[in-house]
Write a structure and sequence with these properties.
This protein is of the alpha+beta class. It has two domains: about 120 residues, Glutaredoxin (3-Layer(aba) Sandwich), CATH 3.40.30.10; about 110 residues, Glutathione S-transferase Yfyf (Class Pi), Chain A, domain 2, CATH 1.20.1050. The protein contains eleven helices and five strands, in the order E-H-E-H-E-H-E-H-H-H-H-H-H-H-H-E. The protein has a five-stranded mixed β-sheet with strand order 4-3-1-2-5. Strand 1, helix 1 and strand 2 form a beta-alpha-beta unit. The protein is globular and about 50 Å long. It starts with a strand and ends with a strand.
């Protein structure tokens, strides 16, 4: 059976978190690195959105005329239809697809016992994770883009833009003051979903960030950035249009 194909862009935060989830699930895929200024025809055929990440669960020649998933990463949140379609073109849905296939690190915080109370708590935790991720995808991401633009174009509202982001950063700092990861002492879906965007935040005003009152967030981020997992997920590969060679991407 042919492996799924993942169209990806190395530094895109949405593509990054899709790769992290796939790596964590140990689900092998064929990776195709692209640039959005020169999109492969195969990628456009797979999804009319034509933005990364796109996961093709069947080879292009086998695709039907069925529509692809939701139209924006800010909208749907794990709708069942996205998981059963032959193409998944939302990063969060790709994460759920990967971890529903295999979750060796228990990132979804499921509990492998029959006790009903444990099952309820596990479902509640997943719901809380999805709510937090949605808040950051919809609200924080908008403020993050404004912050990036203010820095890039030397706008006079830089401090205001940063402070708007800090309202959300403080939420994470408070959580991380209680345990090493966002929901417990164990890593979760929320950690890997938010990681790429917090990385972006930390890079906008590097010196300010290093002196900021968020030591727990800094420790959390550094743990990821210095990990072998992150090095492998961020490895640079030849552009697929130049080589036409698929890269086997799988976690270990």
């Amino acid at each position: 059976m042919a492996l799924p194909i993942l169209y990806s862009l190395r530094n895109c935060p949405y593509a990054m978190r899709a790769r992290i989830a796939i790596f964590k699930s140990q689900q092998p895929v064929l990776l195709r690195d692209v640039v959005l200024t020169n999109k492969p025809a195969e990628m456009i055929l797979a999804s009319a959105k034509a933005t990364v990440p796109i996961l093709v669960l069947e080879r292009e020649g086998e695709l039907s005329d069925e529509p692809s998933c939701e139209t924006s990463d800010e909208m749907g949140r794990g709708r069942p239809a996205a998981i059963t379609n032959k193409v998944i073109d939302e990063s969060f849905d790709i994460m759920l697809w990967a971890l529903n296939n295999a979750d060796p690190d228990n990132l979804l915080h499921r509990v492998d016992i029959d006790d009903a109370s444990h099952e309820v708590r596990a479902n509640d935790t997943l719901s809380e994770m999805i709510t937090l991720i949605t808040d950051f995808d919809v609200e924080f991401k908008t403020r993050l883009e404004a912050y990036k633009c203010a820095k890039r174009y030397h706008e006079d509202n830089l401090n205001d833009c940063r402070q708007a982001c800090e309202q959300y950063i403080q939420v994470l700092e408070t959580r991380l003051a209680q345990h090493d990861y966002l929901f417990s002492a164990r890593e979760s879906l929320a950690d890997i979903a938010l990681l790429p965007f917090i990385r972006q935040f930390a890079r906008i005003e590097r010196q300010w960030y290093l002196q900021s009152p968020y030591p727990n967030l800094q420790k959390w981020l550094n743990r990821y950035l210095q990990s072998p997992m992150f090095t492998k997920v961020m490895a640079k590969h030849p552009l697929w249009l130049e080589s036409r060679a698929d890269v086997l991407f799988v976690g270990k």
